[in-house]
Amino acid sequence: MSIFPRISLKPEVHEHLKNVFLNKELVAAVGAVEAELRFQRLLLCLSHPPAVTCVRVSTHLEPRERIQGRLAERLRQEGCCGSPAEQGSLDMVPHPQLPDVLLLPVSGPRPVAPLPSELVVGAQCGNAVLRGAHVFTPGIVATPKFLQCGDLVSVFSDLEGSCCRGARSFQGRKVFLGNGVSAVNRSSVFCPEPARGVGVRMVEPLYQSPSFDGVLPSLVFLQNLPSVVVGHVLGPRPGERILDMCAAPGGKTCHIAALMGDQGEVVALDKIRSKIDRIRQNARTLQLHSVRAHCFNSTQAVSSEPPQEAGGPPFPPESFDRVLLDAPCSSLGQRPNMAVAGSLKEIRSYPPLQRKLFHAAVRLLRPGGVLVYSTCTVTLAENEEQVFWALDTFRCLSLQPQEPHLGAEGMLGAGLSPDQRRLVQRFSPELSWGRSDAAASLPHRADGDSIGFFIAKFLKS
Ligand code: SAM
User: Fold this and answer.
1) pLDDT over 70 for what percent of the chain?
2) Which residue's CA lies nearest to atom 11 of ligand 1?
3) Residue nearest to atom 1 of ligand 1 (CA)
4) At the topology level of CATH, where does 225-460 sit?
């Protein structure tokens, strides 16, 4: 068992990523040693959570300061911050450039000793626990034979998904996440109708960050910082018609609607039917009425034929003032992520799909409209190379400056000019990882130590 593994990748994926980070142009510019160091830092930081929790607040409902006060009070009441000494360190910082963001420092890794009694959760659940969540019962895959409600247990994450559901112990690759108190008996976890809700309340998590489950649901929304930046960069205005082409679960859709003061229309498409309810549920919870969610394949969202349902897709060309293409991607910037199950073939399947979506996006945008393209991955092929391709393919598109611009410039190696690289933003956690200077403290830290992310903004002439 390893306590802090680097992200585990298939050898072919490791080699592919290494080639991205040690590409000829980059090595010539920064040197082979620095390029290799950045790559190694990337592998390390991807398995750790970002140093800051980013909370987007509903400024369409209440001013940020009031929400901040209510949130601090609520988290104190719930004892979300551990011991009284730790509660004292609940500094919530308003983001200096994002008027709807509060930042909370994450403390960790903390020195927590594992207990003899072990409970194992799936990797996805484990990643949520590292970001401050309690263990939800459906995420549990193994418990001690006689687990009772109230037992103290150590929680481990199954890195490779190899633990059989219902096991009593597990010797495979796992990582320690901290200690908690069980809220369930073993029999209520592994039965035909398993319990839902919290299964283990974390009392000594390795990474301490408040659990926001059920906390002021209409006012606070957990969202990675670069995702919030996307909404601001798109710059929606009240009364506009906006398309979010790949929208589920709707974090950015709801942000766009909030930025418009809920006036206008935000059309949210996703091709997976089961995810549409999440978009609608999020919009309801955040009290947003301008969101219209539809299940649809966005590569086919443009047509002059009449739609299947009134006001729904497909749409005639030039139907929207702004389009967000938050593309399906290899997600290699997500943190924490201790193991990538995907193959190189899967990673290589994304650029062609992103280009199909891009074609539809450009057609659906009115002349003079804004298109934002974003991904949560770190490869060149899904980011800078797509921008290079788009500028070459769609002569009506031009790259635009972004506001705010918090990320680094685009990576070398995709053929973009220095000016073009300065116009895109790449959130590169490996560039700030391990820094101990003043810039490593809040609020600056939030801009560097985020997930890996990419944003490009275009204007259609
Ligand atoms: N924008 C979302 C948010 O901020 O909450 C996250 C979107 S996620 C990166 C990509 C989404 O694209 C997934 O929900 C996936 O189901 C959807 N998707 C993939 N291919 C699609 C297609 N052809 N048309 C529409 N949606 C698609």
Assistant:
1) 94
2) 246
3) 247
4) Rossmann fold (3.40.50)
